[in-house]
Amino acid sequence: MISANIPNSVRKAVYKRDGYMCALCGDPRHLQIHHYRHRSQGGCDHPMNLITVCAYCHGVLHGNLPACSDYMGPDELDQACAEYLGDYYAPDWYPYDG
Fold it and tell me: Cis omega (within 30 of 0) on the bond before 91?
């Protein structure tokens, strides 16, 4: 799902930062941008709140797709997002800063 609210320059920078692949599983296909802290919870369109994910991981993160038996569920994927962004932006990253 592509959001018109994320500027193209920010979207491209996030894809580039994440190596043009899903930051969670490494799949380079069907890439989307996921807000770690959802906009409905006050999340912003800043790269510190955005992560590149494939359509499958995005669906699992939002509870729209079931996790495969050998794959992480939504809670584990959410934790993986937090660790990825936290490692990338340490020590400045805190997921609850708007």
Answer: yes
Please give the model's pTM, rounded to 2 decimal places: 0.85
Nearest to 81 by CA among 2, 27, 29, 18: 18
Task: Give exposure, 41-67, as e/b (b: 16+ Cβ within 10 Å).
Answer: eebebebbbbbbbbbbbbbbbeeeeeb
Helix/strand/coil (H, E, C) string of 20-55? CCCCCCCCCCCEEEEECCCHHHCCCCCHHHEEEEEH
pLDDT tens readout for residues 9-55: 999 999 999 999 999 999 999 999 999 998 888 889 999 999 999 99
Sign, Cα dihedral of 49, 50, 54, 59: positive
CA 69 to the chain's CA centroid: 22
Residue 31 β-bridge partners? 54
Both tokens of residue 27? 């799949």
